[in-house]
Please model this.
Amino acid sequence: MRKVAVVAIGGNSLIKDPAHQTVPDQYAAAHETCIHIAGMIEQGWDVAIGHGNGPQVGFILRRSELARHELHEVPLDFCGADTQGAIGYMLQQNLYNEFRRRGMQKQAATVVTQVLVDRNDPAFKNPTKPIGSFMSEEDARKRRELEGWDVIEDAGRGWRRVVPSPLPVRVIERDAVKELIDAGFVVITVGGGGIPVIEDEQGNLVGVAAVIDKDYASSLLATSIGADLLLISTAVEKVALNYGKPNQRWIDQMTVAEAKQYMAEGHFAPGSMKPKIEASIWFLERGGKEALITNPENIERALEGKTGTRIVP
Ligand code: ADP
Ligand code: MG
Model:
């Protein structure tokens, strides 16, 4: 019996450093991660891949902004859809070539994925996620008046648009993803946390200008397809206590109770490691058996129990 893993891949799987951000650079970075995803599939896993899209959405918004005098701008939900397509393409082609190299009979497919959020989520009253480029105070004020943007002054560096970051409630394309997994496809889904949509009074879906955390969305996906494992691939081999301090200690394994205690003690930085730990806890408290955090190059070794940080119920 093959087991199912949701693999949430982080920003480092597409952009390694600020000097390597072009599309060919991203393609090359994705190649490396795809080698290890193919490796785990060869070990017997069926995989659904979730991925981040923060910088890629930033690039689209910037282009859109620069071309404003000539072309319509791109709404945020469409930036999400565009990046799901482009990143999905990047992963599909890399996986195709890697499967071919290994003589594996596997195919990958991308599902443009909407994720339902609650229109009464408190995040809508308190937008916190900065997106797009920095602006002058005057531009920020104009955008607020003309387009209803929420803007903030970002630590003396200038003004930025902020959008809500609501919690994911339901993966709209869940059944399609499940069918594809059961049929043996590798599925790329919930890209960038999914395109956030709300239900209007009639129950119709409407895209919203918001950003869903990709770790939370991957956790929800893992729960809703009954995955055996949530694997979060990021820039560190293991999670640490006292991260970056002289008394730093790597964690091999922790229970949900231990993870909660460490979190309360402030060991996991908000906006980076904390959402991964919360996403793992969420998965395990809803019936998941195991969550694993490591970096792309250690995926196969971590699955063999040789490294990474394992979180168990
Ligand atoms: P991703 O794009 O994968 O979501 P993030 O930058 O959001 O990456 O989160 C991963 C980062 O979290 C790591 O690269 C590391 O710098 C940081 N981090 C914060 N706290 C910890 C911790 N306790 N242990 C390990 N890494 C941590
Ligand atoms: Mg992150």
Remarks:
- The two ends are 23 Å apart (CA to CA).
- The chain has nine helices and 17 strands.
